[in-house]
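Appendix B. Extra example for self-study. Work through it before the problem class; the solution is given directly after the inputs so you can check yourself.
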Amino acid sequence: MSPSESVAKLHQKRLNHLQALEAESLYILREAVAEFARPVMLYSIGKDSSVMLRLAQKAFYPGKIPFPLLHIDTSYKFPEMISFRDNYAREIGADLLVHRNEAAIADGASPWKLGTQNCCGALKTRSLLDALEAGGFDAAFGGARRDEEKSRAKERVYSFRDASGQWDPKNQRPELWSLYNSRLRKGESIRVFPLSNWTELDIWLYLYAEQIPIVPLYYAAERLAVIRGGAITLVHEGMRLLPEEKPELMKVRMRSLGCVPCTGAIRSEAETLPEIIEELIGFRRSEREGRAIDHDEEGSMELKKREGYF
Amino acid sequence: MSVMTSTEASSREQGFRAFLDAHLEQEMLRFTTAGSVDDGKSTLIGRLLHDTKSVYEDQLASIRASRVNRSGGLVDLSLLTDGLKAEREQGITIDVAYRYFSTAKRKFIIADTPGHEQYTRNMATGASTADVAIVLIDARAFQRAGELLPQSRRHTYIASLLRIPHVVAAVNKMDLVGYSAEVFDAICAEFTALAGRLGLKSVEVIPVSALVGDNVVERSAVMNWYQGPTLLEYLETVPLTISEAAAGPLRFPVQLVVRPDGEFRGFAGRVERGEVRPGMRVKALPSGRVTTVKRIVTYDGELAAASFPLGVTLELEDEIDLSRGEMLVGETQIAPQVSAAFRAMVVWMHEQPLIAGRTYLAKHTTRTVRATVRRIRYRVDIQSAEHRESSQLEMNDIAEVEFDTNLPLFFDAYAENREMGALILIDAVTNATVGAAMILSAAAALEEHSTQTHDAAFVWLRGLSGDAAVLRESLRDRGSAAVLVDDPLIPENSLAGAVRALQLANVTSISARVELREETIAAVREAAGGACFESMDEATAWFEGRSSREETR
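Solution. Structure tokens for the complete assembly:
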């Protein structure tokens, strides 16, 4: 079956799981656009964002995506991500906003200087909250999935944030059927997660079935890297190599895209989507494991979320 | 690194295609688990995930290394699912968590809900989207008590209340009762009787040991007396109910109007029930206007048909007035109930009690209205399923309640269709979601609604909110229902829709808005069927005329 035939198979009466997931996501996107005054989509350039963007194109077709995309640029993103972002946004005619915490960047904020927790706090969390406030956005779509990490398993589709952008796991609204409560007071906001029920495998299958473009870093290639703290770190501009580190060419790919210093690569031969999916089926390690931020402390993702990180 | 020949590469590619085809055909099943703290629920879910190879190695390594092991087994599988830090420390789950796994046959979504007594609301939440409920029964506790524990009765009752299509009892801890067929049979008999009393249609009972792994994924080597499916076999084969929803009459609540340019005007929404096709005659509610579906538009091309739960955009043959919160239904099909009063089963979810006379926001499909509690008919004692009198509802109470709404709703009974019969209640001040309601039927309208014999009108008293209130009272005194439509919930572009809905319920709408756009005035005039007045005198004269005509008739 060719990809276009797979797409044609969507909308038959017997529903497969990708159709069911797609239908749910379209419903969520439309509800949020209908009920919030100023929604925005957080666009991370990653594979999940790519799926979310395609779903937004579908939800409002034949109209354009009726909200801007917001990228929080930490200045540590892979250059391939930035060029992909700019080209793709232009190609689909999306309105792209880029926000950087320039003060912190000028101050030399880095994971080496501040530690990953504080660096994320300044360049991602603070930056995101500032951008949302500056834009007056009352709802922000995010590509987080519940299968990513234990603390995300309890996340709502509509995740309520108080006036300071904080998440209180004890004070979330019960969510029944597909009746989402969008009521807000001034200053409060809601993070909307249309991909809540998608798994990593679902994302890859959908990327394949829909032929959605993704950043080339997801595909295996010979890349210059070092092993640091047990993780494969790509050699990048401005990187300070430790005395014992000898960069070498390795066939690697990224399983999830974050900042260059804190996102580990994995050894892989997968050069195409089918090969990535095949590899994934045999995979028994969760995708966030390569992210330094999750391992600082047990329960660290929960701490970060309470402060406003996605 | 080995180099593949082109034939090897293409056969590998074909192998993957076969895999992809199989995966694209996988269906999705949502289930919820109900059990109390000691029933072994987290262990059961951990076992399902572990034995279907859905646990990542790093996750398994982290729970092996964990200081906590409450299970009595080698590895505490319950740790796989215990999410937030505070809960992990307390050793209990206190909120709904969602888990995912898949087998060659299906993708599964688990709504893992705590079963502790004060958390009825969590189970109701998990149950609201579930196709299957797994009710955990502790075989050893049954053996000790000689009967089903109250918690098991409660869980089964909530499954029936939320109309989960299939209910399976997992009789757990069989290893602790010596895998006794007698104990299982006794539980089976009692559970089946309970399910019968509650009117459950699809029921299964399976003996398992989550700790050891019997009959969860792997068939038990010791319970040879049991011939039925393992829990996973059951979950992989139980029929899905989407075709039932597709077989009903069409219900298409409008989510939003898609209008990219002057040419195209489409109505985006999800087919909640039934099926829509191009050429089908449809009726818009509340206007009653009839038109034909021209095209079903999607990003992936036009469709020949669409049914629940697909999200599509409908283009209609005629320019009719239709907006969010309104609905398209099949012209010749059974119509939904249209009413501004209904009876519903309510699950109360907030510390602030529900009190008769209080007004909440009610969100039903894509429509949000104000709903006032007329009275609590009875509260359900969920231990005994008996009805009790009650003047207010506390958190986790379940009751039958009558509501009056400021605008009519278009609904089907929850028993017929979940999407068309469900609503949530929201506190208008704090915006908290305070309750869930499942509609039983329309209620008799209040007296002031039913005694009226004349038609309704729209009256615009520009800027005179005092006069508006006086007019409403004077109309009410003479037995005519009237409401003020200057609620912030009704923005100007929804005004005509609100007036039309009120007309349908024979209720006069009064506005004291300072300004209305030309097109709004035209739309409102049409909605009110020409009965549109801009002064108190004009309106009063019209009403006088109507009632004297009634008298002479």
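Self-check: Residues 111-135 of chain A form the longest helix (25 residues). If your reasoning did not lead you there, revisit section 3.
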